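Let us practice reading a record.
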Amino acid sequence: MIRIEDLSYNFPDGTRGLKKINLEIERGEFLGIVGRNGSGKSTLVRHLNGLLKPTEGKVYVKGMDTADPSKLLEIRQTVSMVFQNPYTQFVGTTLEEDVAFGPENLALSPEEIRERVDRALEVVGLENYKNHSPKTLSGGQSQCAAIASALAMKSECIVFDEISSMLDSRSREQVREILRKLRGKARTIVYVTHRLEEVLYADRILVMDRGQIVREGNPKTVFKAPELGEFGLELPPIVELLNSLEAGGLALEWARLASIENLAEDIWESRWKI
């Protein structure tokens, strides 16, 4: 769906932000991108819908060159972005108006717009807040509202750029639950974070450092890389627990890590093997 060829990017001051990135993102894939602050994660994903233009190389979205101004509108309808500060994205006086803003610009019928807005708010659990001002929502609710706006566009790909960085633990879990619902819904998800626990259920993870992709693979492969600490990353406690159990002879299904309840159930059922 998205193809990146030899992408390099220089900031206006001449600093190198990305160095020779080559990447393909498949339709329906959940791709996690992790790395310390300043590693190039956000710079990379802002090339996916043309917010940034390559200094060198090419980025293609469904075959469309992001450097082609005539394709930019279609590219941005295909790839939506949700940023870490949802308050900068609100444009309506009510939540319903805000979520409807994008679809209204697509010249859809009022009935189609209403259906999209209602469905998006239902997915994020805000259907009872549609007449509220976005400014009255909590931090977690505000981020869910921003997600609803992206869902209402029915974009084929949604990029989430550090959306949990301003949230408390309860709100982060709320957002993660929404992402679990979206996974496998024929929609491509690109999720940027420095919290490894947030990409436990990704199909593939990229580790970035100093503007380059330094590791790539499924979660199990990436989380077992001994040099993660060198890239400013810490293993989630649940992964450390799993590694300890495996070292003790108890092998559990890695995919079950996405749910604490599932993992606890597996440990209980396997207790006689420990």
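A brief commentary: Residues 28-49+77-229 form a domain with the Rossmann fold fold (CATH 3.40.50.300).
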